[in-house]
Fold this sequence. Notes:
alpha/beta
Amino acid sequence: MSDPGHDHDDEPQQDHGHGHHHHDLSSVGVAIVTVSSSRTLDDDPAGDAIAGAFEAEGHETVTRELLRDSYDRIQTSIQSLARRDDVDCVVTTGGTGVTPDDVTVEAAEDIFAKTLPGFGELFRTLSYDEVGTRVVGTRATAGLVDDTPVFCLPGSENAARLGATEILVPEAPHLAGLATRDDEEDGEGDHGHGHHDHD
């Protein structure tokens, strides 16, 4: 099999529409973690927006948690959720800014096996239309933890809705399917991605 045949699974192709790849999951189980010192699960508009965006497209909110701004608690929560069989992706909201207690990004990135820089780049591009140059203050990021995509969104309702609706709902089924394809679908072991490790 030639290398270009593998590249199509790992790199976006303009002629592929959503749902085209057989690796895509038909339904995604999402875990939502709200990081806030002032919110409650009953008063969580950003978490509600993320859940609503996924559920509107037939996906399931498996669990929701609310944590204070704590590096250790955030990291432990992400790791625990990423290992659950019923969770296909984890979405955090809050703690991505520049104040001293914004530690979500640090907690997540320290456990990323792979980073997904395109997520933050695209989110900031889309956000520019809403908040202008203030977009430089958001450190939204994404990566893989235990083969589970983890996305870290800002805590505002508008930012959470934008990220979930415009990026996560369209792409999470594809990313989650790709991340686990070696052991669940292709049975290839490591060699399916091996030649990409040095890219």
